[in-house]
Structure prediction request, 704 residues.
Amino acid sequence: MRAGSLAVRIPPLHGGGRRFESDSAHHPSQIYCPVAVLMPMRLFEFESKALLGGYGILVPKGILLEKGTLHLPSSGLKFPCVLKAQVPVGGRGKAGGVVKVNSPQEAEEHLQRIFSLFIGGFPVNSVLAEEVVEAETEFYLSVLVDRDERCYSLVAGSAGGVDIEQTAREDPGSILRTRLSPLKGISDFDIQSVASHLRIGMETLSPLVRAMYSCFLDQDAELLEINPLAKTESGLVALDAKMVVDDSALFRHPLFQKLPPRGQSSEELDAEVVGLNYVAMSGNIGIIGNGAGLTMATMDLVRDKGGDAANFLDLGAGARAERMTEAILFLTKNERVRGILVNIFGGMTRCDEVARGIVAAITLSNPSKPIVVRLIGTNQESGEEILKGAGIGVFQNPHEAAERIVSLVVENP
Amino acid sequence: MTPFRRDAEVLVQGITGREGIFHSRLMKEYGTRIRAGVTPGKGGTQVDDVPVFNSIREAIVRFPMVNVSILFVPAPHCKEAVLEAVENGVECIVVITEGVPQRDTIWLIHYARCHGVMVIGPNCPGAILPPRTKLGIMPAGAFALGNVGLVSRSGTLTYEVGDALRRRGLGVSIAIGIGGDPIVGTTLSEVAELFQDDLYTDAVVVLGEIGGNMEEELAERIESGAITKPVISFIAGQTAPPGKKMGHAGAILQSGSGTAHDKILALETAGVSIAKNPWEIPDIFIKKGKK
Prediction:
């Protein structure tokens, strides 16, 4: 069977879509993606495959089905097919999100079921249907940013379709990691060792690895993984693909800027809309700090005192009063939050600005939840005065502040 | 010993931007020898008496002793700016800019190292050597002169600990924020080794956080005997959930590695004193001093 072009048609998910274009022979002729301002991190399988196709990497013939589609187009694929839930998390196979079907009837039954699934907390909004590809052998291959070595690595595994981290623990000999010098780029001798490890000829492997490396660099990826990579009669075929892109590089990728957001809770999306640096957690004490390290240290301190943080919220450097107000209003709206601890070290940030922001938030929302403030640094005295004038307790010692908020929240559950 | 000398002569790349102007003024007020600024297209102007040039090549003709460059250049232009600084022979480049793409960071770090140039950052507060030299954006008032070498992955925690030491009559020889990105030019252990060789530093404070393996690497360096000065450490993010970026792009727990617990264990095994929170670090010093 010929594994060749991937025919993907993606209608807009939320109306008004834009085109996602490429002019390669292996690239889908038209992919529509909805407009969104928020960042994608992990691309869906069909998006990754569309990109790989653009670099001449073979992918199975397939069709993307939008939620609500219960049968495969009649002129579409040959059976047997495989139906794959498109979610931005791993573990979809175990969750029942991947299934092989032999007939249109079977496909219909399973589509209904798959579209009703939640996988890792994500609803299934689309399913990729692909023709089954007969593989002689399957491999694992990825290019990634090697954080610890501060370079790129090419990772090859002699077994495909595996959890690479688990394999690395259980059978490290089957994995070959090749470090790539970012100044030099990729060379034949880098690929040669991989070819020997996987027992694939250089003439077959080299174009694929070079295409992967180009795609990885061009798209500013942090990870580009083909797993499994199938060896077939017609060449090497990417049966599954995963790509994570660097959100710092979005400014040079208009294509990614248009993709819908993924990987965040709705609470985190709301925070992103108002421009807050926010992570949701399970506790009930709202945390506001300035600087990531200080905010994390504040969460840790609250737990030390017997409380649990409801969130991580970093105001960043040099925050003005309005930003502080916004942060407090955001937390007071959240029902999980029973009290708020503000921990500010005024360096670039001025304590009087912070104090004004807190007073404004309390005047605006008159929250029933207690707010405890620890404030030191630049313009500390005027900050303290503003808060005391509004009847808000202010601490210099973070221990006392953390103890206070924990006791207030525990007393008024 | 290091490019961090009290007589460093400094160039500011991106000096005419809002941050560039503001922080150049503060550095100068503190006593740093800011010699020149560079912004393409703004040559011939001045920022608070500091002459601005179109290129580093033009700046070093006038100021050949410049050995440190501080970057406030927007993220998309950082790679070019670092290349220019390296080509013109500076010894150390401090990249303050946040949001530099990883591909650019990796490239510029390798390029600089090939030329023997040290890069601090990106996404970092820089370094301060009290009482008069500041190569970065930290609030100078938080740091007093002393014998502690302070190195941190977090900006505000550097200030917090500097300030907590100052309030207890202690101080720093050098404080360096290495930056919050997953990949930075100079790691915790590399800075700790600089402190090891520094005559004015008697003890080292390391403020780490979740993600990556820099703290584990430091533990290895201590165990190998490369660092023998006493080390005190705090690791932020003991309560952080997995898979989420905690403000810093580098502070993320991935597939069960890089947890605060693992880091604390590795450091404790290497004989490092672990502080439960950053505010108790001065107490540990005072206790140790009494022994």
